[in-house]
Amino acid sequence: MIERQRVQDFIRSFDRDRGSDALKTIEEEALRDHVPIIRKDTQELLRILLKMKKPERILEVGTAIGFSSVFMKENSPQSLRIDTIENYPPRIVRARENLKKADPEGKIVLHEGDAAKVLPCLQTPYDFVFMDAAKGQYIHFLPEIIRLLRPGAILLSDNVLQDGDIFESRYGIRRRNHTIHDRMREYLYALTHHDSLDTVILESGDGAAVSVKNWS
């Protein structure tokens, strides 16, 4: 049996230093202050998907302090616009500061508030959606996300394996995680059984689901 950690270490040995100084500064801030950002192998998956899709309109649910927004900007066409949503006030303040430095052109638009309230107000169809917010809310956001995806668009959902908790019976995990566990399983079932989506679940990072909206 192949040891997963050795496989990951081997693959990461080929990583290149690609990001801008601004992106590296945000990453250092996140690591210093223990703010979760997308893991290295998920970054590579995201980068390749963006290079393949070449999206001009991206929606991100879960800005945190702006790392993934800037990452997506740096790996997308110059004509790009990103709408990103964040609900936690301290992170909104820090995200605005980081985006001001890393995105002087104003291609990244930060929407403040609960995504459940912001999403219904958005109308523009998107070529790419990155879902990286509160994991227990994914299932509640999904109907609006599907509405906002144009045919052929990609939805990338991060952290869907919950550090392995998702494999376990709800009785084998901590009681406080039962709701998230149940909702994430419901979300994965919805992604893989929805008539409008074609989905694959991958092991990248803490698990990633890649969905494409069908043309019909």
Task: Describe the structure in your own words.
The protein has one domain (38-213): Rossmann fold, CATH 3.40.50. It is 41% helix and 20% strand. It has helices spanning 4-12, 21-33, 40-53, 67-74, 89-102, 115-118, 138-148, 178-193; strands at residues 57-61, 81-86, 108-112, 126-131, 149-158, 197-202, 208-213. A 7-stranded mixed β-sheet has the order 3-2-1-4-5-7-6, with helices on both faces. The model has no long low-confidence stretch (mean pLDDT 91).
Keywords:
216 residues, alpha/beta, Rossmann fold, 7 strands, globular
Summed up:
With 216 residues, this protein is an alpha/beta fold. The chain has eight helices and seven strands; from the N terminus they run αααβαβαβαβαβαββ.
Alpha-carbon distance between the termini?
A: 41 Å
Provide the spatial order of strands within the biggest beta sheet. 3-2-1-4-5-7-6
SSE order in H/E notation? HHHEHEHEHEHEHEE
Top-tier CATH class? Alpha Beta
Examine the secondary-structure arrangement and name the CATH architecture: 3-Layer(aba) Sandwich
* Overall mean confidence score, pLDDT: 91
Question: Helix/strand/pairing class, anyone?
Answer: alpha/beta
- CATH homologous superfamily heading: Vaccinia Virus protein VP39
Count of beta strands: 7
Shape: globular
Strand content: 15-25%
Into how many domains do the coordinates divide? 1
Using the CA coordinates, give the radius of gyration: 17 Å
